[in-house]
Amino acid sequence: MHVAELRGQRIAIWGYAREGRAALRFLRERDPALDITVLDDEDAVDAQAPLISGRAAIAKAIAGFDVVVKSPGISLYDPLVLRAKGRGVRFTSLLNLWFAEPVSCRTICVTGTKGKSTTTALIAHMLHGVGLHAMAAGNIGVPVTELPRDGLDAAVIEVSSYQAADFAGQCDIAVLTSLFQEHLDWHGGIMAYRRDKLNLLRRSRRTLISRDALGTAGEVLNLNSLPHTTFAAGPTLCVNNRYLARPHNLANVAAALAVMQELGIDQSTALRAAEDFPPLPHRQQEIGEIGGVLYVDDSISTTPEATIAALDVYRDRPVTVIVGGHDRGIDYTLLIERLRASPRPGLVLMDASGRRIGKLLGSGTPVETMDDAVGEARRITPAGGVILLSPAAPSYGRYRNFVERGEDFARCVGR
Fold first, then answer.
1. What are phi and psi of 322, to 5 degrees?
2. Which of 40, 112, 332, 345 has its CA 20 to 30 A from that of 24?
3. What is the pLDDT of residues 231-268, one digit of tens each?
């Protein structure tokens, strides 16, 4: 849907966080006369447009709009969305509005249950290192509408499952880093999650798929009709960067190198460019050592697989892991098996999913606050050990997002 199609339409922007604000700026810059209203669940939103706040008020008003620009956090399967669609309301997104306009650079879209942020940042970093003007945007924290339209060689865009579900554009290269269970509450089930995430691959001229995810992707996509290449971190892959050399990050390096190959860039040159790649915040971020104990912020961890990967990084040291958050009902079997393996890590439990993990495992100490969690972890972790925040769950309810959770952990640590 192009902005020109919105003229004379009654437009709503639903959700006024980062993407909603970017959508309002984007639309106003292109046509100040557009009739735009902001919808948001919060009552006190500083909207630069007429505001309808609260779910009850939104439910009454939404059928009166022609087009709704929906923020990613609002599920496509929300009953209000489904009812509005049934009454003829059209839905779009910031990503779709951006792709509807002419794009003069290469577009590389990265998705996956885990690894997409690091892979997105790494691709942009490598491209910059070989002399190209590349920028990362999307779910990584920069709205795509903040990318320059001119002078850019490549836009590297992180795409969440929320954004991929209704993606209607076409990118040059799509990358799938991994495919596990995630966001089941938003999508309504594992098959819908896979279908929605893999929609991005259908909307790409060329697709790169992690070899580990190929079998699962093949259950949803007809791979015979999809132009694709697989990638994996082979035993000879080596990068002179301590953070990227971790086993799970080598998979992200392999993904980035696959993109370089598609673009005709020498892989050894790209690997040299990756040597000064900095760790992203809240992703196994070592925030400091106090009293001989290392504190690690892995707040981005929202799946069992991510927490297992973090535990494996520190498998040679005594570890106490802080787990738990919003419970989406995902299967924790693999994590329970890892927590039972010898030597067993110390375990501090937070919130609903933490309590469920503790019940399944038959051990662990439940706490009420992050202060309590850090205090208990300090009590049971010996000198030379690691206190690891790796929740295997989203932060919703207690925190707005994983960033706020990681910052609270650092505050409690004293960093």
1. -95, 115
2. 112
3. 999 999 999 999 999 999 999 999 999 999 999 999 99
How many H helices and E strands in the chain? 16, 17
Place of tokens 């910059």: 128
Q: Sign of torsion, CA 245 302 352 361?
A: negative
Contact 348, 322 (CB under 8 A): yes
**For residue 9, which amino acid is it?**
Q
Task: Tell me the three-class secondary structure of 322-360, residue by residue.
Answer: EECCCCCCCCCHHHHHHHHCCCCCEEEEEHHHHHHHHHH
- The yes or no reply on domain 102-276 and CATH 3.40.1190.10 is yes
Reference 37, options 64, 73, 5; nearest CA is: 64
Helices 304-313 + 247-262 axis angle, to 10: 110
* CATH 3.30.470.30 for the 3-92 domain, yes or no: no
- CA dihedral 65→70→73→75, nearest 10 degrees, is 60
For the chain, what is the mean pLDDT?
96
CATH architecture for residues 285-413: Alpha-Beta Complex (3.90)
Q: pLDDT tens-digit profile of 19-35?
A: 999 999 999 999 999 99
CA distance 282 to 285: 5
| 193's tokens | 């999650």
CA distance 231 to 240: 20
Cis-peptide into 32, omega within 30 deg: no
